[in-house]
Amino acid sequence: MKRFYKDVSVKEEGGAWRILLDGRTLKTQARNTVELPNKPLAEAVAQEWREQGEEIDPPNVFLTRLTFAAIDGARAERARVAGHALSYGKTDLLAYRAEHPDELVVRQARTWDPLLEWAAKHHGAKLNVASGITFTEQPQESLEALERAIAANDEFTLAALHTAATITGSLVLALALVARQITAKEAFAAATLDEAFQSEKWGTDAEAEARLKRLSAELSATEEFLSLL
Q: Which stretches of the chain are assigned E, i.e. beta strand?
């Protein structure tokens, strides 16, 4: 999309902050008015629009994309977004372990067990752990605890939580990131532990590396979004 504006500014109105492009209020893809909860986040989103060249580059406006997800998704369709986030808890990456080699098994346990213990202690969500890829049913009380943890978030935090779970394949990692129990760098390292192990043994693939780099950048932007909230 070609850049269609020159000036970008922010304006406080009714306790919320709006982004103005040539004096016109920025709207989401669903035509909802973009209203942000504080000035720092509004300024960060505005800066993304200021930094665009002649063409608007969607990957470089990730804070904007999260904002749209919060307004069009987490606010307008909260039950759907929350339910999808919960689905990552039902099949959480951290609950599925390799059967071999021993080195990978040990590495998974060392990295993932403390995070599962944190989820059990902090949220009351103790997850079953199994080896292999066969689906493992999680305790109903644990899923209900995870559901409560998701429901406790406002729409902006929920959008970030959902995005983090989608990137990592783990609701536990997403909740830990939201709680600042771990950093985005640590969360991504935990989520890509298997890939890193395989790269050590067999080398890297350029296409896979590019994909991981993009996802890592998106998770870091999600962390920035949360910090600005």
A: 8-13, 16-21, 24-25, 35-36, 96-97, 130-131
Q: Which two tokens stand for residue 102?
A: 């021993």
Q: Which residue has the tokens 């669903």?
A: 30
Structure tokens, 178: 């939201």
The rounded distance, in Å, linking the Cα atoms of 215 and 222 is 10
Give dist(CA 77, CA 84) in Å, integer: 11
Residue type, 76: A
- How many CB atoms neighbour CB 177 within 10 A? 27
* Three-point CA angle 66, 208, 65, nearest 5°: 10
Tell which residue, 167, 141, 2, 158, has the closest CA to residue 72.
158
pLDDT tens string 112-126: 999 999 999 999 999
Is the Cβ–Cβ distance between 116 and 123 less than 8 Å? no
Q: How far apart are CA 9 and CA 218, in angstroms?
A: 25
Omega into 101 within 30° of 0, i.e. cis? yes
Compute the distance between CA of residue 185 and CA of residue 90 in angstroms, rounded to an integer: 24
Using only the alpha carbons of the chain, give its radius of gyration: 19
For 174, other C-beta atoms within 10 Å of its C-beta total: 29
pLDDT tens per residue, range 186-216: 999 999 999 999 998 888 888 889 999 999 9
pTM recorded for the entire structure: 0.95
Nearest in space to 169 (alpha carbons), one of 109, 97, 101, 87? 87
